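Budget justification note: compute hours in this period were largely spent on complex prediction jobs such as the one shown. Inputs:
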Amino acid sequence: MIPAPFDYAAPATLAEAFSLLEQHGDEAKILAGGHSLIPMMKLRFASPEFLVDINNIPGLSHIKEENGYLKIGALTRETELDESEVIRSKYPIFTDASKLIADPQVRNMGTVGGNIAHGDAANDHPAVMLALRAEVDISSSEGTRSVPIDEFFYGFYMTAVQPHEILTEIRIPIPNGKTGNAYHKLERKVGDYATAGVAVQITIDDAGVCTYIGIGLTNVNPVPLRAVRSEEVLLGQKVTDELIKEAAKYASEDCNPSEDLRGDEAYKRSMVNVLVKRIIHKALERAHA
Amino acid sequence: MIRCKTSKEISGMGHSMKRKEDDRFLQGKGNYVDDIQLPGMLHMDIVRSPYAYAKIKSINTEAALAVPGVIAVVTGKDLEQYNLHWMPTLMSDTQMVLPTDTVMYQSQEVAAVIATDRYAARDGREAVMVEYEPMKAVVDPYKALEPDAPVLRSDKEGKTDNHIWHWEVGDKDATEKLFNEADVVVKEQMHIPRIHVSSIETCGCVADYDKVENHLTMYMTTQAPHAIRTVIALVAGHVGLTEEKVRVISPDIGGGFGGKVPVYPGYVIAIAVSFLVGKPVKWVEDRSENLQADSFARDYHITAEMAGTKEGKILGTRFKILADHGYTDAAANPSKFPTGLFSIGTGSYDYGTAYMEADAVYTNKPPGGVAYRCSFRVTEAVHAIERITDRFAMEVGKDPAQLRMENFIKKEDFPWKSPTGWEYDSGDYHAGLKLAMDTVEYDKLRVEQAEKRKNGELMGIGISTFTEIVGAGPSKDFDILGIKMFDSAEIRVHPTGKAIARFGTKSQGQGHETTYAQIIAEELGIPAAHIQIEEGDTDTAPYGLGTYASRSTPTAGAAAAVAARKLRDKAKKIAAYLLEVSEEDLEWEPGKFFVKGAPEKVKTIQELVFAAYTNHPQGMEAGFEATHYYDPPNLTFPSGAYICVVDIDKETFEIKVRRFVAIDDCGNIINPMIVQGQVHGGLTQGLAPAMYEELIYDEDGNILNGTLMDYLVPTAVESPSWETGHTVTPSPHHPIGAKGVGESPTVGAPPAIANAIVDALSPYGITHMDIPITPYKIWKTLKAKGVIE
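Corresponding output:
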């Protein structure tokens, strides 16, 4: 990598990190796994003057169930999701997603927090977090605030995290009852961003009525998108193939994909339609299992 | 099966000896150009054009020169003072080293920044300000030939259009008559996409000019170091760099695939700067530069036609090509062959009438036309013949395997004269296809496919039965810039029976350090482990034309065998002297001569070599060395029968290659493990253009996929589990009966995959799709046909 010149610090505490961020403002970038930032610096699309490396700060890497939440520390590596027993048994949606993120080398470094804090609708965790209605903890010298995921993504590479703040933890309400989740994306080859991706979390009662549904879409909208109309079709209803088809159709209509080498708008809508159907079915299968 | 004549200890031909070079590669101890560090070395980075076609109004270097560490910015005007701003291409066209007034393709070199470290060079590059006046680029090769198209090569006096050359072969009139009268004629328009070799190591060099000695050492990623030395001497002799003052060293190379045959402007600029400042200059491209600016491969638009009978007998073919060469013809073909060996495109089939013609054209795209893991346009030819053969089978309603079996040239008809003038040396096409069909269980697959079609499922089976043409080449036809395409080996055996052998070729991963040693071991009985192989240093190795086009085994491998045989003859004379018998009384078995009928009277090769230094017969020259320059009497014609099975998702149109069986016939095999490795790599590089890779440009000549995020090089994940096998039909004219294999899979795989996909989609009336065939392309095609909403 031959980036533009920059300064670098690796603070050992959050307090030091906050102070560096306050000092350098807009010119600073946080370095977590670095696998979005460093390629941009290599191509000189990004030329931050100061990097605050948070990898030495303790307490930011964990996966645990506590007080009704699944808590994931922002510095948790994708590989750690892959290998976590609690994730594998109860939240297979994460392993569905993480095994489709880049390649093993990237997953050894890339972090869950970084994946959403980058604010890129092409990343995979935003859709997953939307489906799971995650809450995001954002900290600064002023304290910690909690932001619902629906209010986290602002625009292209823009999130609720301000320059002086650090995303520290993601919290997901532990689902109850008959519940299942799944994620899949179409990609041109391994390591590619999604042509289209769909995350689904569904809970049904004994009568087969949907009591919770979350559907998130990857890379088919300028900002990560929750397919709200599709969710409304299913919520409170007995889930049928017909309703799933209707939900899929709505998702394909409500997203706003742009044409690129992966395909034109119509193709991507068509793939969203196929994927929403398939992933709801897969989540349901898991709910029944 | 492969039978070994030598013991495992000797490891001559047929042994799957582990690669001798792998110790250093696996331990990260390879020595590549970028590993070379010299005292006082400067670093170069290159400013490149953002436009495909533009006038340069000004170049402001002030800010760049103000960057700490930057010592110079070199422009075309600077090089013009030494008449170094233009250079010849291998096809006798011309190419700018640096432009003085116009840029002709996006990412073209515009200026070079020289600095004391790599980072400063890059910062300097960012600071060079170039003012351009963009012009309307010519991107589509068909439009480039329209009468009102702007003439791109206005630097060429009297040039009034964008046409480069016309080429043709075969009997035009007879072919036209045949096509007019034939029962069945099929025709498809095909594009073989513009692709890139994308070797793991990019291109680069360290030019080290010593002012005191007036001597240039050029460390360089080149597949042909000797030819490069000659080219440098021809181009720069006028400033004092004559051939004895130039040493080219090609260290370890991380993949070449034809992309490291040409001379790129960066090499020339580095030499010029080193010459002027008297310090070593390193230039190593980054990944994007490599992909965007270095020579592309393929980019042939082909109108392919086949004529035959209703019963499925092939009678003739006609191919018309439009070759998009970009800004200049920078292909790397033998000089007399502007379309390379495309004329092999009559294929493996027995018919007598063919006509092929090609026109080449300039466009505002990077120059090239290199032979990417391909013996000069054979990939394009094989794609055309194998696709149109399937199309013909479809038209006459015959199974494509059956149709091939009925049309193959028969084993007993070799040597076989093709209608385009080649003499195929040997082959057994029926045996190859039969083995492939048995391995894949072809008949069962067709039954399964019929069942699946009833349920609307998309399954396809594709065949490619290709003939390659490699080992360029016989001196009467083959030269590059006048130098005949022989190759060479020099063997020196030391007194203790250990040897060093040097070659004019240059391995880029092919395993020469092992296979050449095995050839010598086969002929001399000295263990391959005791034979050191060296290549790539023009001061020590004998002259040769280098490694590309699967030519190393057919040429340098043959030279090794012949040189070793010269030494065996000498050993025999020494043995006769030591054993006090006549030469006729001696018998050879690998590693020793013994007296016929008295095997206890024996001398080992090691004893005989020792005697050559310590006790040689009076009148015999001492020592144990031989050199041979091998001029092949003919090319060799490897062949293969590949069968591919695909399943296509009927909603997402994702394509899964379920099976891929590759039966290759490369004649006698030197090292089966290395052949298998070559075939695996080649098949993956055949999968690449079939389903993933294509350099894509917009109408302004901007590259749309200039990084590996969008230029989709397949990985192990995309690659199916390759099933390989072989038949063995030795080349009758080659000293060890070998033919060359490195490129067969790259050449043979794409049509097998394309044929399988088209077969899967044939229920929708699809008869052809251009590669790369992607899920999106299938979706668009079916949507256009109204199959899907």
